[in-house]
């Protein structure tokens, strides 16, 4: 059995050179193509998610929807596909700590989106993963208005029965490049916020 390989990356530190310790020739989009996986995943005709082998025969666009209701204080309940999540703030931030904060949900969304792609692409690349751990960290700027994350770091540790570091690095790079959340951040998609008044109002 091959020695297990541990890999840590920071995909969002620099989109052009995402991998730490990748060495020369390991990060180019045109290098080390294997079994057509890179061409398949990065195909222009691969649909919204970039996975031609998964999106075949499906619409190129899909509407996702989450409904939220105010639960008092700064707490809200988000509902999607039969699931419900309470979102709050810590007591230090003026909440009752009934659930994770919106910014924590945001970090979890980024990490879990990459994690889903790691699993899917590893299966396509015939990589036998034994474990994946991820730490997602963001530095939030409080000075000034509006507040924003100023850094985002994703540290990934992988245990696999493989010593092929280049293949594992390619797995992580493809997972991040095809992550819907990561691409939305990269493309700076602006939300459209609209108001609907309910009940009697005065003009």
Question: Would you kindly provide a written description of the structure presented here, covering whatever features stand out?
Answer:
Residues 1-50 have low confidence and may be disordered. The chain has 5 helices and 5 strands. Strands 1-2-3 form a 3-stranded antiparallel β-sheet, with no helix packed on it. A two-stranded antiparallel sheet has the order 4-5. It has a domain at 64-186: 2-Layer Sandwich (GMP Synthetase, Chain A, domain 3). The chain has 203 residues and is an alpha+beta fold. It is globular, with a radius of gyration of 20 Å.
CA-based shape? globular
CATH class of the domain at 64-186: Alpha Beta
What name does the CATH topology of the domain at 64-186 carry? GMP Synthetase, Chain A, domain 3
H/E element string?
Answer: HHEEEHEEHH
Model regions low in confidence, pLDDT < 50 over at least 5 residues: 1-50
Strand content: 15-25%
- Per DSSP, the total helix count is 5
At the fourth CATH level, what is the homologous superfamily of the domain at 64-186? K homology (KH) domain
- Main β-sheet, in a few words? 3 strands, antiparallel
N- to C-terminal distance: 75 Å
Average pLDDT level: 78
- Rg over CA atoms, rounded to whole Å, is 20 Å
Tell me which oligomeric state these chains represent.
single chain
Q: Please give the order of strands in the largest beta sheet.
A: 1-2-3
Count of beta strands: 5
Classification by helices and strands: alpha+beta
């Amino acid at each position: 059995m091959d020695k297990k390989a541990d890999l840590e990356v920071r995909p969002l530190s620099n989109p052009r050179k995402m991998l730490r310790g990748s060495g020369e020739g390991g990060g180019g989009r045109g290098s080390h193509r294997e079994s057509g996986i890179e061409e398949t995943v990065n195909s222009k005709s691969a649909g919204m998610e970039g996975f031609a082998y998964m999106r075949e025969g499906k619409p190129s666009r899909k509407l996702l929807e989450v409904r939220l209701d105010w639960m008092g204080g700064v707490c809200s309940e988000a509902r999607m596909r039969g699931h419900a999540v309470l979102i709050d703030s810590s007591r230090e931030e003026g909440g009752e700590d009934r659930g994770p904060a919106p910014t924590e949900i945001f970090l979890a969304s980024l990490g879990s989106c990459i994690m889903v792609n790691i699993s899917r692409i590893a299966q396509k690349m015939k990589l036998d993963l034994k474990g994946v751990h991820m730490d997602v960290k963001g530095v939030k700027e409080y000075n000034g208005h509006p507040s924003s994350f100023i850094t985002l770091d994703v540290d990934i540790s992988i245990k696999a029965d493989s010593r092929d570091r280049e293949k594992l690095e390619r797995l992580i790079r493809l997972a991040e490049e095809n992550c819907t959340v990561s691409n939305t951040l990269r493309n700076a998609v602006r939300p459209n916020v609209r108001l609907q008044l309910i009940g009697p109002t005065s003009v």
